[in-house]
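Two proteins follow. First one:
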Amino acid sequence: MKKILTALILSALLLTAAACSTGAPPAEPVSTAASSEPDLESSSSIIEAAEQLVPDDAIDYKGAVVSVETQDGGKTGSLTMQDDSGEEYIFHFNESTIIGIDLSAVQPGDLLNIRHSPAATFSIPPQSAAYEILSAGQAQDIPLASEPIHVADAAVYRGVVDDFAVDDNGHTALILRQVPGTDFGYPVLQAVLDENTRYSFDTAGMGNGSYLEIFYGGQPDASGTVTAIAVNDMGPVDLVVYNGILVEANTEENYLLLDPVDENGMQYRFNFNDSTQFYLDFNALAPGDKLNVLHDAASTRSIPPQSFAREVRPMAALENAPAPIPAANPTSSALS
């Protein structure tokens, strides 16, 4: 049933895009094939056509190509894209879409500018109909999110960067605070980043407020300091960490329904599958259990919102939680 509903939604989106683009009565669709009026191989003609055919409420999007799927000889299909935060979006195109590039030559990592319908599905990733697809250069300006680094047999700590400094050897030292509801052994940990530290992300934006995962060896020294072997960016902490009270654990549809511990929060549904890591006895879960969930930053706009659970743990006590963490400040780079 979900697949049927998604197909109907997508069909409606594509029909809406076609109707909005061509107006009433329907005009000849703008095709990716060469034509004399207008010549869409000319950038000026593309811009002129876009001004005439793209609705005023179109949404601008810039991202890197993840994959391309085409049907009907390339006349219809979809682009899976990724923006600079690592979130994915799927854009569907058809013969009415203004396409100023050769889609057969598009490669993963290529940057595209897309103007699309404001209507989107509630799925993860969200999907929408593309009005216009243009090249925006190569992906060196917007790197794809890398796979996280995992270091076998190393200790792990997750925390938000509270401050940073330079040690006596000229290495950056991060002061990390544990996030309320989590327990990685230490309320505060200092991690030194040396020339051997590996990263799975662009460190240019790392700074106060960044939520990081640190792999390190051994035990903290007398000053509570470790040397980081590898560092992963976990994403905005307020979008990926949730503390809640279990309402329902549904094993038929594979989801957890939680009420927020924070009185200002909202109820959430977390979907899970075999890749979700449960650091507890799932069969012993009962309504009222307090859980800490690490989840995808993307969530639906449904009520309640839904996201995918990556890890589920018992929620650590909040009585001794550290002071509120400052908001992320990507302009203040720890390595600059």
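Second one, unrelated to the first:
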Amino acid sequence: MLQRYPWVVRLDATCTYRCSICFEQKKNNVFTKPDGAHVLLNSELQRHQASEKHKTAELEQEAATKSVIQQSLAAMSAKAQAEAGPLEAKLMRCAFTTFKNNQSVSTYVDNAVLMAACDGASVKVAGPYQSRPAGMEMLDCLSEVIDEKEREAIQKSDFIALTIDESTDRTIKHNLAMYVSYIDDNGNVLNRYRKLEEIKGSANAKALFDLVKKALEDDGIDMKKIVGFTSDGASVMVGEHKGVAALLKKECPGVLSLHCAAHKLALSCADLFKGDEELLLLDGMISKIYGYFKVSPLRREDLRSLQELLKAKEYKLLKPHAVRWLSRARCIRRLKELYPVLLEYFKQETGPNAEAIYSWLKNAHNLILTYILDEILDVTARLSCCFQSSDLALVDVNTWLEGELKLLEMKFTYHKISGKGNLPPEFSKAINELLASLKESGGRWHGHDLHLSVQGTDEGAVSWATFGAELFRKKKYISTLCTDLIALIRERFPKEALGLAAHFRILSPEELAGVGDDEIEEYGLEDIKTLGEWYTGRIGHLREQWITRAVHKLVQAAKKAKKKAEEKDLPLLAREFYKKERGWLKAGAPEVWKLIQIMLVMQPASAEVERGFSAMNDIKSSERNLLDISTLDKLMRVRLCGPEIRIQHQAADRPPYEEFDACILPLALKHWHSKKRCPERSCHGPRPKRVKG
């Protein structure tokens, strides 16, 4: 029994028991008495483990451990610098900074010379160091060390998930990026870059799967640990019989395939624009206005001068990108911000294009549509940002989705709240002020006379005499637009599409917090049964531990966490919640903890891969398009997985390179000495005496 409670210590002198954590943190309870606790009932141990004092003691112990670790890191850093000498340590930092900031290997030479000039006599850059080969050698060392540390952490994790995606770089080379998510020793869920492979020949599912399999085998990563696979939903990835996911499931039974949530949301918004004539016209007008200024530097300067003359905030027009998730929302926001300036600009322009743009801008319907669509897409953009968060867990997707869709319904459609039905749309203050201003002025806005027109499904003629907020609340077009968007999003996120993954919803902190006291006994039993059957062989005694050890405590913990989150106006996220609860789960309900780990490592979105591709394009710029795949892979590893160089907002006693010096520098220098630099043939030592003849 005591194996479930690792904090219990037996006092041999008195044959009693003590809580080591509470005693160390000086908490006052029955398990910290000088002579210990005489009673050792399972119920008493469970009650103590769930108590606030014990949880507080656990957090305090964790904080104290972190402090000790920081002191240890500082000591290791000082020792590494003392052993390495100032020259090698500073040059390795110089190389790391160069590659971390997406600079070229050649730039390392210039940075080393600059460092020597700034550092004076303590650093003298000798010939062998002041070269591109030296920079390449340091890159090799840094990449190897970071790769080894990540690989060891992944190998220790009980469960992992895989995210892959294809991309074409600046030189039209087809690459495959692989990311692995895992849980580290501190309970953090990390989604890390592993490998960039060039796709040679056909990019079919078999070729992609073979690349993934070989990369994992080369790293010594057990593929049987894979529980999740995330992709952009392309047929080559998720084809029912021959996709990468299907091939992976044959190799690793039990793998669940997920379609990136951010990608599905972007497709929903794209579908809305495809099916609506007014939105297509708005979309085309944004591109038309951008193109009008793009072709002429003189026009751009005139627009800038007009903004200055009108004392308007200076903005630049944004280029619409069909492949970028937030592009359309940002472009419409910028059109709204520039609307008065654009009206004034195109009023003075001549030519058919300028006149067509001015005529469109003068239509009050288009102005109001721009304001309303800005707020509609602002909700979807906020949702997209949530889906792209590195802290997003599988069970968080539905929580965010339902919250934002309810907000859309309240703002732009007739809706129900607490049983009260047919409540009108709740337009924002900005929209109501715009409508009131147009009605009072008879369509006069920023010195321009706007005109009204019948649009969409509106019936009958309209005039400024009947214009107002009530008219636009009743406009079928606006409510239909929002209703269609909500329907398209729900169509892309049906619960049945998740398949078995939908059963993990019982682990959502939001769901747990909403369980009533009379519902706890039956909560989640069917889902637990289904999940237990799916993971037979990996998880045992799941139902028993769920009923007797987990569900009551999880519900209580979720209710408390929900209350605290609401007080701080913060969301209740799964990864943060379970990180705090992992201590008692690992000790008291290990099989339930395994199930939770499986849920936590699965990635609901592939945004991390997209960020990696952005870094790839920054590294392989137009000036560095000759980088081979091996060097590009190493540079991406240092950039994406290397520790951050923390300069701003850092305490004076914590140097910018603290984490690098402690975790990477000693091992990188060890690699440098053993593999790259030879004392007999470099400035590390005197050259051997050579005998002629």
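SUMMARY FIELD: Residues 403 and 459 are 33 Å apart (CA to CA). Confidence is low (pLDDT under 50) at residues 684-688.
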